[in-house]
Design a protein that fits this description.
There is one protein chain. This protein is mainly α and about 80 residues long. The chain starts with a helix and ends in a 5-residue tail after the last helix. It is globular and about 35 Å long. Helix 2 packs across helix 4 and helix 3 crosses helix 4.
């Protein structure tokens, strides 16, 4: 009766935080593109807080997106 266990493990993977699954990365990439398209007049990127506010996410998430984008993790 252990046949159902692998399916349960796969289901648990779907419950990972958004930062770790494919859909979360899609949103992060979208936020990074938004940041690049909404540079300040002097060419600077919006703050992590501004990125977060544009996507109704936490300030921490916005800072993480900006850092990941600057390091090339988001393409």
């Amino acid at each position: 009766m252990g046949g159902g266990e692998p399916q349960e493990e796969q289901k648990e993977d779907a419950d990972l935080p958004a930062e770790h699954d494919g859909n979360g990365r899609v949103l992060q990439r979208e936020a990074w593109r938004w940041a690049q398209q909404n540079r300040h007049a002097d060419g600077d990127l919006p703050s992590g807080v501004a990125i977060a506010q544009a996507f109704a996410r936490s300030s921490r998430w916005g800072r993480m997106v900006k850092k990941a984008g600057l390091t090339g993790e988001l393409g």
